């Protein structure tokens, strides 16, 4: 089973001769992430800004391959190219982002404002904004979202190293947020544990292990 994130990056890596496709198999990894929910001046939700911090091994492997590539581009330029490739491929995967309001799916706009950089801890961080297709008034009903890889090869977890994994930007002062932990049933856990590295996971497995972000604003 290949990581979806490796699939996003693989076309660009193989195109410029970084690694052969057979070398892309990778142990189960994780992404620590946080979400900044953006509001407009009418208290409507307009976008989810996401910050994905890739795990140390994955970050090290990728930056080493970037550094060893032929060409005159700076590391920053190569990261920009990588960010563009990831963004383009995420567009075909619904950005791995699933948003609902009052029980209905919320349509998303086009991903924008993406960057990928290496932090002081040497981990790669991919940052981007997913706007809603239309501004949304919450009117007392919770807005919820999950971010996950269908195959559960990459695990997405809210970043526990920061105090507020959900930030509210320009939100009314009476809005509240919380993270709801995943509670997969024992059979789902057993199914995931039984998968070999190269096995194909059933589509949608990641949903059962995804944490849920929630924001509620009182009706006005």
TrEMBL record:
Organism from which the protein derives: Modicisalibacter luteus
Official protein name in the record: DUF1007 family protein
